[in-house]
Write a structure and sequence with these properties.
Rossmann fold; 34 helices; about 60% helix; globular; mainly alpha
């Protein structure tokens, strides 16, 4: 029973999981004979499980009802079955030398007899020393056979506090590598830890956690599974991580020469004999610097390496030295773009962002980016987008401050923020064209009500405006750019551009609604809501952002915070005189309470929302949407009544909603309402009445690709056909 309740709580990442949570709440209320609030942690789950245990042992009918429900809940074993993929490491470096001592330490820890202690090692070294390359090389060349169930590689992006994944996001990244779909990733970090442990138990896996920033990132990913070896890669020794520490220092002179020879040829190294000592001194044993220097050794037209004081000035930072050597050979336009792109920690830079920053077209931006990749000043990620190594970005940023001065630097960041805002608004409107929550696209004042009282930001008409062929293409653009969009929120706040902070925050709504990524979006949504409170209180914008914040907090099962944000949304919408927004915020409060099994309060919230909708008169804003809004409220009322055990009235409400969705041919909402009715029939011990409703729901979803909803319907259908099913 504890496992079933835990699985219900952990499954809230998709609509079927939320439905299962509501069903569980109504059944627990019925078993207990009173209201029981949804458990929020393992201790509370155990207490609710005890209530269920005692109740079903007193009443055989309740025991049968619980048994029928439990059969529809996928436990951890089912999740494991969907995640039996074999992840692989990225390819190893073609040329690799030295590091034998470090690899022997890794060999020993990976092959150590299981004794209950986690197998974990920490490779640490200064940027450019090849720690990541060493981890991948060892995993691919020396340890592949030792881990037949796969090799996970997750970039924790720990280049700075602002870019590093938090523990919950790191768990999601690992679970995704293990094959868990986003729709099955639990909303809370605690449940993600439980799922991770169940997935890796009994498997022989290597887990490489690259670019770790802190112990807090790493700890949730460490398990006691005897077949799992965790290899952490970081720039420092990460106090707080209990691991075998393997320092990675500079290559010895002999190995540095060997790597240069592998990268060029014996003839090139021999021809460079006179300048080789200076090259080696400037590279400082850094594999990254040596790879950059190899390009210049093979280019006979490149200037000879500099000597003396200039070489000594950066002797303790070979990455910066290599960046400076490459930078001095760049053409002016390439050098300018290299500098200006570094002024904010954009996670990944594509041609569009480069064109905004460099004030050029995308074709020219692509050419300049390719030049920077060729000389190792930019790297390519797996999506073909560009990013800086931390040390290289530091060099570029310092150079920009020196050469472009404050005004030039500020203008470059402003152009980047404006470009991302333009993209976000256009993509959001293309992804959700019918949504009144999405701010209007640039230069479109027809959808801009005066009561927003937030001035539209300035836009540069010379910048190319993206267009999208369909909703899917627009959503793909938002998902691909989400890291940069979130950084743009922070950059706009730093520059005091509060209108853009608010607009960008609102443009995130399609991402929240359709793609999730809630833990990633949460910091930006908090910032946008605070900004609206400070600079635009009592506006629709403030109401919208608190609504969005409440939505994401609810998806992350942070119910108390979500309720506070929803109340703030309602207050701001009421102050702005936005009736539809006010009603929607009150409706959200009801939905949040529904998930907490507070059915009476949820029903009261839906009634209040209905009364607010009733004040929208003919011709008023939102009047055309009223029939659908009322149908959704009827469905929500029916769900609350089902939780309260009032099945007859629940059927009446749900039937009203179903009639509307059938008439308007909304397949997904038709199927959801049919499912509610079927589950209400099952609650009453009427599987024969539930079966045709389930079959109609399956037919309605035939073209919707709603795989999780269909799986739930098939489980319900099996319950109907079970001869022992008698839930009433």
């Amino acid at each position: 029973m504890t496992a079933v309740l835990g699985a219900v709580g952990a499954g809230m990442a998709n609509e079927v999981g939320k439905r299962g949570l509501e069903t569980a709440g109504g059944l627990v209320r019925r078993i207990a004979g009173r209201e029981v609030v949804a458990p929020a942690d393992p201790d509370q789950t155990a207490l609710v499980a005890r209530i269920v245990y005692d109740g079903v042992h007193r009443d055989p009918a309740l025991a049968r009802a619980w048994q029928v429900f439990a059969r529809t809940v996928p436990l951890s074993g089912a999740a494991t079955a969907t995640a039996r993929t074999r992840p692989e490491l990225p390819p190893s470096s073609r040329f690799f030398t030295d590091r034998d001592d470090a690899m022997k330490v890794l060999d020993r820890e990976a092959s150590r007899a299981a004794d209950g202690r986690p197998r974990i090692a920490l490779l640490h070294g200064a940027p450019g020393m090849g720690t990541s390359a060493l981890a991948v090389h060892w995993g691919v060349r020396r340890a592949a056979k030792r881990f037949p169930d796969g090799q996970v590689h997750v970039d924790l992006r720990g280049f700075s506090a602002g870019t590093a994944l938090d523990g919950s996001s790191a768990l999601r990244a690992v679970l995704r590598q293990l094959g868990v779909p986003d729709e099955e990733v639990p909303p809370t970090a605690q449940d993600r830890v439980v799922l991770l442990r169940s997935l890796v138990a009994g498997r022989r896996l290597l887990m490489v956690l690259d670019h770790a920033y802190s112990a807090a990132q790493v700890r949730p990913l460490i398990t006691s599974a005897p077949g799992v070896f965790v290899l952490v890669v970081a720039a420092n020794a990460l106090p707080g991580v209990d691991a075998v520490r393997v320092p990675v220092g500079p290559l010895a002179k002999r190995d540095a020469v060997r790597l240069l020879t592998d990268l060029t040829s014996k003839q090139v190294v021999s021809r460079s004999r006179a300048t080789l000592p200076d090259v080696l001194a400037r590279c400082g044993g850094s594999p990254f610097a040596l790879r950059a220097a190899a390009l210049r050794l093979t280019d006979e037209a490149a200037p000879a390496a500099r000597q003396g004081a200039d070489a000594a000035s950066n002797a303790d930072d070979p990455v910066r030295t290599a960046a400076e050597d490459a930078y001095r050979l760049l053409a002016p336009a390439t050098a300018r773009l290299y500098r200006l792109m570094s002024l904010h920690p954009w996670p990944a830079i594509g041609p569009a962002a480069a064109s905004w920053i460099g004030e050029t077209d995308t074709t020219e931006a692509e050419r300049l980016l390719a030049e920077l990749v060729a000389v190792h000043l930019l790297e390519l990620d797996h999506d073909g987008r560009h990013f800086y190594r931390p040390g290289v970005r530091g060099h570029a940023e310092d150079t920009a401050h020196r050469e472009d001065r404050a005004a030039g630097c500020a203008a470059a960041v402003t152009r980047a923020v404006a470009g991302h805002l333009d993209l976000a608004l256009r993509a959001a409107n293309a992804a959700l064209p019918e949504s009144w929550r999405v701010p209007p696209p640039p230069h479109d004042d027809t959808r801009q009500p005066e009561s927003w009282r937030v001035p539209p930001p300035p836009h540069d008409d010379t910048r190319p405006h993206p267009s999208y062929a369909n909703r899917a293409e627009a959503m793909d653009a938002l998902v691909a750019e989400r890291g940069n969009l979130l950084q743009a929120v922070h950059a706009a706040e730093e520059f005091g551009d509060f209108t853009t902070v608010v607009r960008l925050g609102q443009a995130l709504w399609p991402l929240q609604l359709k793609a999730g990524h809630h833990e990633e979006l949460l910091p930006a949504l908090r910032l946008a809501a605070r900004t609206a409170d400070t600079h635009f209180p009592g506006t629709r914008a403030a109401g919208a952002l608190h609504f969005q914040l409440a939505h994401t907090l609810g998806e992350l099962a942070r119910h108390e915070e979500a309720e506070t944000a929803a109340l703030a949304a309602a207050a701001n919408e009421r102050a702005a005189g936005h009736v539809r927004g006010h009603a929607s915020a009150v409706e959200l409060l009801g939905l949040l309470r529904l998930r907490q099994w507070r059915y009476e309060e949820a029903y009261a919230g839906f009634d209040e929302a209905g009364r607010i909708y009733d004040t929208i008169g003919p011709g008023a804003e939102g009047e055309r949407d009223l029939p659908r809004a009322r149908a959704l409220l009827e469905r929500h009322r029916g769900r609350a009544l089902r939780g309260l055990g009032n099945r007859e009235e629940a059927r009446e409400r749900l039937t009203v909603a179903l009639r509307f969705f059938r008439d308007t041919r909304e397949a997904y909402n038709t199927a959801r309402t049919l499912t509610d009715l079927a589950e209400t029939s099952l609650d009453s011990g009427d599987p024969a009445g539930a079966l045709p409703l389930i079959d109609e729901a399956v037919t309605a979803l035939a073209a919707e690709r709603a795989s999780y909803h269909l799986a739930h319907l098939h489980a319900l259908r099996e319950s109907c056909l079970d001869p022992d099913q008698s839930a009433g």
